[in-house]
Amino acid sequence: MKEFSVTPLGTVSPIPTMECNCPGFLVKCGEEKILLDCGSGVSKYFSRPEDLKNLRIILSHLHLDHFSDLGNFVYASYVYHNLGMLDSKVKVFYPYHHIVNDNIIEIYSKENNYMEFDYYTNLNEFNFGNMKISFLRNVHDVVAFAIKIIAYNSSLVYTSDTGYNSDLVKFCSGVDLLISESSLLKEHGLVKGHMYAWEAGKLAKETRVKKLMLTHFWPIINKKLYVKEAKEYFQDTIAAEEGKKFILRKGGF
Ligand SMILES: [Zn+2]
Fold first, then answer.
1. R_g (Cα) of the chain, nearest Å
2. Segment among 50-64, 116-130, 176-190, 193-207 with least mean pLDDT
3. In this predicted structure, what is the pLDDT of residue 82?
4. Mean pLDDT, the chain, whole residue set
5. Centre of ligand 1 from the C-alpha of residue 243, in Å
6. How far apart are CA 10 and CA 215, in angstroms?
7. DSSP-assigned states of every residue in 21-70
8. Which of 122, 147, 169, 244 is the most exposed place for a label (fewest CB within 10 A)?
9. CA distance 207 to 215
10. CA–CA gap between residue 179 and residue 98 (Å, rounded)
11. What are the extents of the domains in the chain?
12. CA dist list (Å): 67 to 15, 151, 172, 227
């Protein structure tokens, strides 16, 4: 059995700070790696050619805070392939509706022989190594998806950006780790298309997850405030911490 883990690489939005990057989570199961979103700053965790081996990038949606570092992966792949330092291709999955001319994915994928691009819908299910990946359409102002990954009977959901909704409750039900956006605090007033920290707590409680990890913080607000608000509903809540690995399933025989 291989180790199944997730490491937060980016936790703030809309712009990185000196300490924190825009959204990104690296999920690993043995040799296989899935990067969920690649916001600004996330690519600095992939500075060696071997870091791009066995890597798939899944973009939850095409808001820039969630994919602005994709160009760094495209250029690094191009250079490493030309120098003979990398022979495998990074595969990128993106939401289906963006197949139109002259969007940025189209530009990146054009005459690109060193990466693969493909789209997905909420009907798709992928397997990558021992990981099974599925999707749920979110409530957001562009087409966006929550992503579930299951390996060895352990599971996580990364909500990405979404308003609270009943489909999400069904989708997250019983997972071991819920990585939920908590863009807002009560004091921010009424905003649609994102969740409040207390709603993330409510979602965790309703779905009986084992652990709630909050993310998508406003850069200048102390993360402890989000955790405090979520804990009104769900005690086992932590704030995502960049570079700190969370092990869902230990490796072994
Ligand atoms: Zn968004």
1. 17
2. 116-130
3. 93
4. 93
5. 22
6. 8
7. PSSEEEEEETTEEEEE---TTGGGG--SGGGGTTEEEE-S---HHHHTTH
8. 244
9. 18
10. 25
11. 4-248
12. 12, 25, 24, 26
User: Which of 177-213 are b and which e, b meaning 16 or more Cβ less than 10 Å from the residue's Cβ?
Assistant: bbbbbbbbbeeeeeeeebbbbbbbbbbbbbbebebbb
Helix, strand, coil % in the chain, rounded to nearest 5? 25, 30, 45
Distance 93 CA to ligand 1 centre (A): 17
Q: What is the pTM of this model?
A: 0.95
Q: How far apart are CA 69 and CA 109, in angstroms?
A: 15
Can you give the pLDDT at residue 108?
85
Report whether pLDDT(232) > 60.
yes
What's the pLDDT tens digit per position in 62-98?
999 999 999 999 999 999 999 999 999 999 999 876 5
Question: How far does the centroid of ligand 1 lie from the alpha carbon of residue 171, in Å?
Answer: 19
Q: Confidence class of residue 99 from pLDDT cuts 50, 70 and 90?
A: low
User: Rounded to 5 degrees, what angle do the CA atoms 176, 181, 186 make?
Assistant: 120
CB-proximal residues (5 Å) to ion ligand 1:
63, 161
* Amino acid type, 74: V
> Ligand 1: distance of its center to the CA of 79 in Å?
30
Cα–ligand 1 centroid distance for 150 (angstroms): 24
Query: In DSSP terms, which residues pair with 116 in a beta bridge?
Result: 91
Fold of 4-248: Metallo-beta-lactamase; Chain A (3.60.15)
Handedness of CA 93, 94, 96, 101 (dihedral sign): negative
Among all chains, which residue has been given the structure tokens 């299910």? 125
